[in-house]
């Protein structure tokens, strides 16, 4: 089968660390070109992974040898360059979040649908097989009816000048908060509302550094979500049911070779289940290529993108600023 011809719009660190190694492992996609505003950066990437270096994002979008582009630019630039790519007739795989607001995401999703193009939001963790096993365990009654979810994702402070601490990066809710929010949607369903939220804001950086939210659904189930970029590293979630708990110990950033461990706790036993390794970046690429070829949207497209965008807006509107720092 002919691979999807892919261009990369930018040289963010995730390109080299995670996405292009995954591209190299998959037969469904082929790297054709990498663009940067600094051609030296693009040449550095293509020297390692192949493809042609291109100076300027516009030049990449003007090429006639691409089917799709991957957009790893800062969040504040997503809306502009995703729209440009779609109007150039290219399918788009965009780093999370697609945009920071529901109206902006809705406009892009509708544009993609009007033009018959795939638009995938790269919440790659959702395509890791460990979460399907969690859903199977819940469906089988392993911990009874779900009462609550706790999801936490945070990492230590980055060096001064890191893009995450700028308006272009968008702050902790945009950069990290989507992971626990997506987890809640994935495991509790769409019918969630925000009961309350708090954020810790940095006046010096002009963005939020961390936050937390409480979500509920009509059945009274709750989701306790925490995120941040000023903590010791943590990336886990826990489902608490009427008869036990399921704990996912490395939920969001496991490398392709990692064998995940699920902990299933009930009153009289603790079961640690080691699962096969899985490649979440590779899985997203395979799903993206399938969507491009068939026109059938996957889990990270359309309605699911918009439901998450709506939650972003709800959390931002409900958030009380506390503990503001300089």
Task: Describe what you observe in this structure.
The chain is of the alpha/beta class and about 325 residues long. The protein is built from nine helices and 15 strands. It has helices spanning about 15-25, 40-50, 55-60, 80-85, 100-115, 130-140, 170-190, 280-295, 305-320, and strands spanning about 5-10, 30-35, 50-55, 70, 90-95, 120, 145-155, 195-200, 205-215, 220-230, 235-240, 245-250, 260-265, 270-275, 320. The protein has a nine-stranded mixed β-sheet with strand order 14-13-12-11-7-10-9-8-15. Strand 2 (about 30-35), helix 2 and strand 3 form a beta-alpha-beta unit. The protein is globular, with a radius of gyration of 20 Å.
**Amino- and carboxy-terminal Cα gap:** 55 Å
The share of residues in helices is 25-40%
Provide the structure class. alpha/beta
Tally of DSSP helical segments: 9
Strand percent estimate: 25-35%
Q: Describe the global form.
A: globular
In short:
The protein has helices at 13-25, 39-49, 57-61, 78-87, 102-115, 129-139, 172-188, 280-294, 303-318; strands at residues 4-9, 29-36, 52-55, 68-71, 91-95, 119-122, 146-154, 193-202, 207-216, 222-228, 234-241, 244-248, 261-266, 269-274, 319-321. With 326 residues, the protein is of the alpha/beta class. A hairpin with a 4-residue loop joins strand 8 (193-202) and strand 9.
Features of the shown structure:
326 residues, alpha/beta, nine-stranded mixed beta sheet, 9 helices, 15 strands
